[in-house]
Amino acid sequence: MRRLVTTSLFALLLASCGQGDGGNQAGNAGAATNAAVTPGAPSQDLAALVGANPRLAQLVKAAGMEPVLAGKAPYTLLLPSNVALDKLDKATWEGLDQPAQKARITALLRGHILPGTIMSADLARAVENGGGKTTIATMAGEPLTVTRDGNNLRIAGTGGQSALITGTEQPARNGVVHEIDTVLAAKS
Fold it and tell me: Which UniProt key words apply to this protein (predicted)?
């Protein structure tokens, strides 16, 4: 447990600086990997993948996180689907350019970013090796619990909300994107 906390804190430190190979450790199984760029690897970075969705790009820009997602450090993004984004309250979308909103949106986004590249197969293996669940740390330092839900993986936040990983993972030059069906609330 001490190793997990130390590893998670080190990864968060690197992630908050936007430098290094901030690897995440999925539970005690250590199933996460840091993907090295190899020939034939995706040419788009995470910022470009996020930029393909105007609503998500708007949130990333408001939080000032574009440089982080365009950087070298690998990240795993849990990106809410458009249906999930539609469920956000109007206050989230109104006044995105206001300084008071920046902290709220940054916290929300950091709760959806994991240091390191964690593929679906890594998560599934960690859940299996962990006796049905594993814990991963977000860039915000909050733990998320991953379990199996039928053929899918379910991610639960500390506030009781949970999301299913849906669709196919999208590898990027500096990480991977997993679409989720619910926005995971930021801890207040």
Answer: Signal
